[in-house]
Write a sequence for this structure.
């Protein structure tokens, strides 16, 4: 039996989800204005059971929670940690605390979290509790149309920053422990073999942002093309944005500040590296893209299970081969750059955009694998797994959105362009470390005498290519052309564009 705590007036429960910070946290600020506050973070086994969840993400969350608990403590607010189904935990806490309001950010998640939110909303109505869900990142609920979304994004997200409440009045916690951080294994969450990982927490987020804007980001526009230069040249803010140790608004305001600095320095004739302007512009654009794709999931919450374009539901149907899938998932496809990218992301949780796009494109258009397990494997590998961006991008790269030109990559050309010396390949595919250029990019062409002198044998020490890309890509193109011969496909594309497309640059065909 839950023991009731002596009744307190107007207790406000702040439910933290993917927003693990105290600054720029509107639900916390609003709650603090209304009454005594108590915080809650919920480990939900049902959501943690998803194939995209990995221990590394949970460890990042735990580090962020430890910092959040301390930051809230400094405000006089306790953070409760609980494990269980949302309605059950909330019901038990309601009996103990009698809170009148739940405050949270509106969560943009896949179907399970959407269903969880519906159940919580039903429970709250029945219990006479007001659940206030506040949007962030410019995501709208409901979103009747996309017409003014892009134009409005900067204004909505650029609203003044919300400081942490000066000192909130903390509500008395229920009797018993506040709840401890829970290890992934205790929640049944498995761990990929990682060699390193970005640390969680607000302090790490701001330090990452500082080093990007003061030094690392100067050549961002060019560096982002390759996983090698992108490692330090990209912002690396993605896990912080995904778990909310940094908000989209904080990132946008920081970008404006840095853009202003660079602009003023240039006008004053002070020395400033000219590459900053283009790099900051590119970064700024990507902050908007992130929210654009999250809105797509909000408007189509089954993005992880069905194509957004109904006409492509049967694309590549029946072609998935378990042996090809196993080779891809192990990073043993016989294409060195593909294998290096996959092994890198499995071990570190990060890859640059182009390499992520290439992995999905090659897996689907070239290896003919089903996009769902590919998306699940990569989602689990990414430390920054953000369902809205992730599934929108997986579908786009797999050609299931129907409003972008599909990009089919030549895996060997990508290797030669992005990793001309084979440095990245040799780091992640040590079997090839003795091969010189150009054979590190195409080990199957190593001349027999050279192979003999190096003690290397293609097919024994490293797999032969899984497929002939020219042939499989030709098959993919032929299937696509056949599908596109049906006018219904174009009508559906127009519908997808109207409902989910960006209004920045409509493709001429549908204008
Ligand atoms: C198949 C695929 C899956 C992806 N899955 C995720 C994911 O789960 N989580 C995630 O955060 N990003 C995802 N991305 C987008 C992008 O690759 C990553 O945001 C980026 O590589 C993260 O590194 P960064 O923070 O250094 O990025 P930066 O290049 O420094 O970009 C800054 C921020 O902008 C946003 N962003 C950058 N590129 C994009 C883009 N193309 N679309 C939308 N937002 C963007 C991200 O929030 C990122 O943190 C995916 C891309 C592809 C092709």
């Amino acid at each position: 039996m839950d023991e009731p705590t002596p009744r307190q007036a107007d207790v406000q429960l702040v439910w933290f989800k993917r927003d693990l910070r105290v600054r720029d946290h509107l639900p916390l600020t609003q709650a603090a204005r209304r009454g005594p506050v108590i915080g809650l973070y919920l480990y939900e086994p049902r959501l943690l059971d998803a194939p995209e969840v990995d221990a590394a993400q949970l460890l990042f969350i735990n580090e962020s929670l430890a910092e959040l608990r301390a930051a809230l403590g400094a405000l006089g607010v306790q953070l409760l940690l609980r494990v269980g189904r949302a309605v059950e935990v909330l019901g038990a806490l309601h009996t103990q605390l009698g809170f009148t309001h739940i405050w949270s950010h509106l969560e943009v998640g896949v179907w399970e979290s959407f269903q969880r939110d519906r159940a919580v909303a039903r429970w709250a109505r029945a219990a006479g509790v007001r659940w206030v869900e506040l949007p962030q990142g410019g995501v709208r609920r409901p979103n009747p149309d996309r017409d003014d979304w892009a134009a409005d994004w900067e204004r909505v997200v650029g609203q003044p920053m919300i400081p942490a409440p000066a000192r909130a009045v903390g509500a008395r916690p229920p009797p018993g422990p506040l709840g401890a951080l829970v290890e992934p294994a205790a929640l049944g969450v498995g761990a990929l073999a990682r060699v390193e990982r970005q640390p969680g927490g607000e302090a790490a987020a701001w330090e990452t942002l500082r080093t990007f804007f003061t030094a690392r980001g100067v050549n961002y526009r060019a560096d982002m093309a390759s996983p090698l230069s992108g490692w330090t040249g990209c912002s690396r803010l993605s896990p912080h944005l995904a778990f909310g140790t940094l908000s989209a608004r904080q990132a946008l305001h920081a970008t404006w500040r840095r853009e202003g600095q660079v602009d003023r320095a240039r006008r004053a004739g002070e020395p400033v590296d000219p590459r900053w302007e283009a790099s900051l512009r590119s970064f700024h654009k990507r902050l908007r893209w992130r929210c654009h794709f999250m809105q797509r999931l909000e408007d189509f919450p089954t993005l992880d299970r069905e194509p957004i374009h109904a006409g492509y539901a049967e694309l590549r149907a029946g072609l998935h081969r378990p042996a090809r899938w196993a080779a891809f998932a192990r990073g043993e496809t016989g294409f060195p750059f593909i294998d290096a990218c996959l092994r890198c992301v499995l071990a570190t949780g990060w890859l640059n955009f182009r390499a992520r796009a290439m992995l999905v494109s090659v897996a689907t258009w070239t290896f003919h694998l089903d996009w769902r397990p590919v998306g699940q494997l990569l989602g689990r590998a990414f430390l920054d797994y953000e369902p809205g961006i992730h599934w929108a991008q997986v579908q786009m790269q797999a050609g299931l959105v129907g409003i972008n030109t599909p990009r089919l990559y030549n895996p060997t050309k990508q290797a030669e362009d992005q990793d001309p010396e084979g440095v990245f390949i040799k780091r992640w595919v040590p079997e090839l470390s003795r091969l010189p250029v150009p054979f590190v990019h195409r080990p199957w062409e190593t001349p027999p005498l050279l192979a003999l002198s190096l003690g290397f044998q293609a097919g024994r020490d490293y797999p032969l290519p899984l497929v002939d890309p020219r042939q499989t890509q030709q098959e993919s193109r032929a299937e696509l052309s056949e599908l596109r011969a049906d006018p219904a496909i174009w009508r559906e594309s127009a519908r997808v564009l109207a409902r989910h497309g960006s209004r920045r640059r409509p493709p001429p065909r549908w204008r």
User: Anything to note?
Assistant: The chain has a mean pLDDT of 95. The chain has three domains: 12-134, 202-293, 310-494.
